[in-house]
TrEMBL record:
It comes from the Bacteria. The lineage of its organism: Bacteria, Pseudomonadati, Pseudomonadota, Alphaproteobacteria, Rhodobacterales. This is OmpR/PhoB-type domain-containing protein. The chain crosses the membrane at residues 18-39, 89-115. GO terms for molecular function: DNA binding. The keyword Transmembrane applies. Keywords: Membrane, Transmembrane, Transmembrane helix.
Length: 234
């Protein structure tokens, strides 16, 4: 248990470091890209400056049509300046959204990897059960104070497995069927016991809990993968 806790803590610390470094890297890269982009965008007043220069350097443009043309150029420069300003704002917003999306993707990816690692650790070490209380009359099993309502058949199967675990026995499907049905194990089919195990797992509902609680040992049979000292049957 201590080894599992230590490994999980190390995994969390490692995941936190990856998240922090990833966020810093993403922000730094996008900041550099934004600075480079904004520095290379043309000046919003560049067009107006050129038009003003034309006015200053061409005093001979006094005809009505010339003045009208210059006014149109000035208006075009103003429109260009406003458009470029709006483009800058759009680019800034897009960069902010891109940063948020990349940071979110990184966080979710690290969370998924960390969760998968923790699931793998649980699968390797099994469920850490501090108490398993079976109440026959209530048809309820309490696993680490979590209550699971069972059917009559599932309760019988779990009770048989609990009693076998307290005796350090591994039971085949035929033996489970024999104990429940009151017949000799040699007269029962292995598939019947396997069906009872499947129904027990389906009744427990949670796939992780059911698969790790009821272990299937190849060529031997079934057993509860918990310490026999924590089992109580009432």
């Amino acid at each position: 248990m201590r080894g599992l806790t230590s490994t999980a803590a190390d995994a969390r610390r490692s995941g936190n470091r990856v998240v922090v470094l990833g966020v810093v890297a993403i922000v730094a890269i996008l900041t550099i890209a934004a600075v480079f982009l904004f520095l290379n965008l043309p000046d919003a007043n560049a067009f107006n400056a050129r038009v003003e220069r034309i006015f200053v350097e061409n005093d001979a443009l006094t005809a009505r049509t010339d003045i009208k043309l210059l006014e149109i150029l000035a208006l075009s420069g103003t429109a260009f300046s406003e458009t470029l300003t709006s483009y800058r704002m759009v680019i800034f917003v897009l960069l902010v959204f891109a940063t948020a999306l990349m940071v979110s993707a990184l966080v979710f990816l690290v969370m998924l990897i960390t969760l998968n690692r923790r699931m793998a650790q649980i699968e390797r070490s099994g469920i850490q059960v501090s108490s398993l209380l079976i109440r026959r009359e209530e048809k309820t099993v309490y696993l680490n104070n979590m209550g699971f309502k069972l059917t009559e058949a599932a309760m019988e199967t779990l009770s048989v497995l609990a009693e076998a675990r307290m005796d350090d026995d591994v039971m085949t499907g035929a033996e489970i069927e024999g104990v429940i049905s009151g017949r000799n194990a040699s007269d029962c089919e292995e598939a019947a016991g396997a069906t009872r195990i499947k129904r027990l797992r389906d009744t427990l509902g949670n796939q992780l809990v059911s698969e790790l609680l009821v272990k299937n040992i190849a060529r031997r049979g079934y057993m509860l993968a918990i310490d026999k000292d924590v089992i109580r049957v009432i």
